[in-house]
Amino acid sequence: MEQKNAHGRRKSAVARVYLSPGAGNITINDRALEDYFKSGSLQYIVNQPFAVTKTEGQFDVKVNVVGGGTKGQAEAIRLGISRALSDLDREAYRPALKAEGFLTRDSREVERKKPGQPSARARVQFSKR
Q: What whole-number distance in Å separates Cα of residue 14 and Cα of residue 124?
């Protein structure tokens, strides 16, 4: 099997994921998963597609991720890994990933700040007199 690649996006984070057969090593921006994401919950998010498809330790993953915060980056990586696994074997992996919602891009973005107001939705208090 050759290398599969996919893109994942979440908020303003963009992840380019390269999936190849291997021993289960995950490298993010030339750093190990445990070094890049110190939090166990973010490491769990990145590994979810492998847990759902029961392929832990079968693939090496190399990721380049830019933008956003740590949570957005972890979810962008999850989407990229899910898309790469789906491209690898549609019949085997796609139904499980689809059922968990890992193939759906979360399109929620931060609303822009409006001019003359303190934030996106907050308004200056109305004064009658």
A: 35
CATH assignment of the domain containing 62 = 3.30.230.10
Domain enclosing residue 71, as ranges: 4-100
Residue 94: predicted pLDDT: 94
| Residue 109: inside a domain | no
Distance CA 73, CA 14 (A): 7
C-alpha dist (Å) from residue 129 to 6, 122, 124, 125, 126 = 59, 21, 14, 12, 9
pLDDT at 24: 92
Q: Strand locations in the chain, DSSP E?
A: 4-10, 13-21, 26-28, 31-32, 59-66
Residue ranges of the chain whose pLDDT lies below 50: none
Sign of CA dihedral 113, 14, 45, 93: positive
At 39 the pLDDT is: 94
